[in-house]
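Moderator note: this is an archived Q&A kept for reference. The question asked for a predicted structure of one protein chain; the sequence and the answer are reproduced below.
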Amino acid sequence: MSETSAPSAEQVERLHAFYRDLHEHPELSFAEHRTAQCIAERLAGLDAEVTTGIGGTGVVAVLRNGDGPLVMLRADIDALPVAEATGLPYASTATGTGPDGAEVPVMHACGHDMHATCLLGTLEQLDARRADWSGTVLGVFQPAEELAKGAEAMLADGLFDRFGTPEIVLGQHVAPLPAGVLGHGSGPTMASSDSVRVRVFGRGGHGSRPDTTVDPVVLASSIVLRLQGIVAREVTPTETAVVTVGKLVAGTKDNIIPDQAELGINLRAYLPEVRAQLRAAVERIVRGECEISGAPKAPEIEWTVSAPVTVNDPEAAARTVAAFTERFGAERVMPMPTVTASEDVGVFGAAASIPTVFWFWGGLDPERVMTAFAQGRFEKDIPSNHSPEFAPVPEPTIVTGVQALTTAALTWLGGAR
């Protein structure tokens, strides 16, 4: 791969400014109106067909360059309800409205601002290098990945019907790896995800007379503890599964026993049968604990967000990784273990029965990461995605991300490379 795939200094400077702007002005899922507008304005300078409002707030750019394959490049654009604690000069102080109507802090704590920046830079590269490829590029800036609903929304809005069905879906995710390094996998790469909202009911009363109540706080606490036995005592030890209670809300005052409690539970798995086992176990435990506690009414159990297992097509992944190795050198391209985080990028490929290749690239200061590894303190010292302290260093993260996505695109497009 020619070194001409590297962005120019002028382009890098523009991309840095774009990244800082997105980071400073994050928006929650399906509310990415300013973000979409900024992306569309930058795409207007390319020889591309740009369409906004796909799946709500998604943006699509189509670059046509003669006969050849249709290749889809995807980036997500939404942020998270997290209060930023990075201390960066361009740190977010934004707020937004959460699903329950409450005002929440908003931060690009998962790197989607970096994903959007690198897809924009890749489209600029491909637009400027039309002599090197032929075919059609479908650049997809997807909303609402954090709700695992954005891909489905874009497909329901006719993404492939309106712009064509691609031959492959390519995407990448910034990760707490050393900046400049690429990580890859084959087959199941990221776990499925299922979230459930549970409301349990008790009988409220005075904190001094618990004998006259059915305490939903104790009930909810019993559920939390019992759920921990699913992975430890029900799932086959050779399989991977995660059960997390990320939300437990009850009561308004220390001397009042409330009449209900709410839990937010999240499940991760790789195998369909394990996924089904987890879901059934959660429902069994919730209903059983309510029965044992003498709850006055049955619990409300609402499954809310689901994402499939992200599967890298083995042949397509091998071809793409070979191009990465040629471009970056074997020392910068490393195999990764499966990741229990989840993505909805696989929805696109599954909908059209086409291969997906999804990889990771490092975004953190290499010296800091390697020092933490050497001291056995990686988990303690290195912030991961969704942390209020997670923020990729702009370089070499942006340049590497643009080079990687450009390299992958050229590997699958027709023409000279």
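Archived answer notes: DSSP finds twelve helices and 18 strands in the chain.
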